[in-house]
Amino acid sequence: MLISSMTSAIVSAQPASQSAQANVDWPLHGRTAGEERFSPLTDINAESVSRLGLAWSYATGSQRGLEATPIVIDGVMYATSTWSIVFALDAKTGRELWRYDPRVPRETGRKACCDVVNRGVAVHAGRVYFGSLDGRLIALNAKDGSLLFETRTVPAGGDYTITGAPRIVKDKVIIGNGGSEYGVRGYFSAYNLDTGELVWRFFTVPPRPGKPLEHEALAIAAKTWSPDSDWAAGLGGTVWDSMAYDAELDLLYVGVGNSSPYNRDVRSPGGGDNLFLTCILAVRPDTGELVWYYQTTPAENWDYTATQHMILTGLNIKGVPRKVLIQAPKNGFFYVLDRATGELLSAEKLGSINWASHVDMQTGRPVETGDGEWSKSTSFVMPGPPGVHNWHPMSFNPQTGLVYIPTLENVWPYTADPNYVHRPGDFNTGEDWMAFHEDVKWTIPFCKPSHLTAWDPAIGKPVWRVEHDHPVNAGVLSTGGGLVFQGNGAGFFAAYSAKDGTPLWKAEVGVGIMAPPVTYKVDGEQYIAVLAGIGGSPAINRQNFANDNAGQVFSFKLDGKSPIPPVTARPALPPAEAQIALGAENIERGKGLYATNCSRCHGPWARSTGWLPDLRYSSREVHDAWESIVIGGAFKGKGMASFADRIDAADARAIQAFVLDRASAISSPGERLQAWANENVCIPSAWVAD
Hints:
The protein is α+β, with helices and mostly antiparallel strands. The strands form eleven sheets. The protein has a five-stranded mixed sheet with strand order 1-33-34-35-36, with no helix packed on it. A four-stranded antiparallel sheet has the order 2-39-38-37, with no helix packed on it. The radius of gyration is 24 Å and the shape is globular.
């Protein structure tokens, strides 16, 4: 397995040799430890891509989001589905070799901010490593999927989850976790590859004053927090996705997540940068010792994580060759850092933002405009929590010198909750969810809310952009054949010219795509593979979905003849009819309870996109069993856990009254106008950003 630092020179030396080989793997999460997500394979190229057809498909059995990067080694594909289920397939035929279900308790889904997804596995020396949603690091036998060991990596009973893929670095497996919004303290850990024993752990935020610091770097962090910080909220800083490794420098790079709560005036009332939130960290993989850090968003206030994809490569900066780390975090700037020292080399605006004007190159800090301040009144901020770039991986092509980035346009109404107190197990952002509920009632979507952006990192400017009508974006692959591959939420998978973005090929698969593609060769044939299944963050997925969300793995090759599996259109359901006395007072109370407890999954104003149930169309049977579902946990096996710790039977009936009232309003002129506007009207993002 290749574990090395990758530069342009190394990558550009590979295409001829790899393209001539009969079997070429995709062995690591980003293909290399530098995470470029570029393949030198050239059989599928700008001239031949029109012949691309489906080689095989595999039904995952899932109905929610699929985000995994498949790993392909020696003709076997390893990937993950929802609920952390792992499967191995024959990479040539799609035949299932084995399947492993870690049996994650379905009520764990309540702790997951952004669906019960998993971004993949790591494979090394005959073992498959992955993290389960409920916080276990699990190792399987790669041959038959049998369990070798499992280690709990998060506190029992805590509100952590794991959705990210682990990384193998030397003799260790590195894994982080998620859950900042639920009030946890972030960290990432290194475990022994053979035994699963903990080797070291790096906490990203300090403990409560008076508690011992677990490692030396926390002395730096502690100085940047108020003594009156909201310590009960854990402070956040989870490491839920991106890592990269440079073997020459022997540095592991880790992206750190957002704050808990978001509202900095509540989180750290005395101010401070709040290290190591939203930082890129460089640590020694043997010990976890911090070598350098760079904070992308000091005093983070908007869920602007730095967990987004990092790439290690080589660039000429002002005529000087530099070994760099590049990242496009949520905050809307594209960063180029010297990866040996952490020196900021450039930071340019990548998309539409209004919270900051630029990054000061002397201090390395964004210069805030004031438009992002929301502690005293509502502010419409660009971007919102989805960011200008989210988890969807980008790709760097050393032949073109361009980074291909799945970018987003979005705005968010932030309102401080004047009565905020930390509630364990709840969504603790410091926002007023009732106000948010009202603010988004009559929203009109942005025109072209997602894009594929080709960016020149050496000069910090866009080169071309493909605009998408659908808000759900997807990860990216670039190849030595001069192609860029990307899917989208509308159910298309496409190839574009790496040079200018010209569309060259498209397949309509019918199931929305978020995951990044990979490419590999088996027996002399090149394949392009991708997982399809919609889900993830409800903040991103604001579009209605017409088809059933049956998850699939699709693998394409030249002259592939397999038919694309048919999809089932979602049935048109009648709105629910009231079976209980509603009452205006009960409806109003239910509106507040719904906003606080239900809207993140089932949608503001009970309008769901469809990948989780739209409660306005619930059946008579569901309404008859409403209390047993919401309070008794009758549907916990489907991921709908009991809310008995949050609401009582009267509250449940009030929520039901609100939902039924919303169902009765579906055919009202206002609702019909809103539905029509969502499908036919949009506004330019510049109206908000400018």
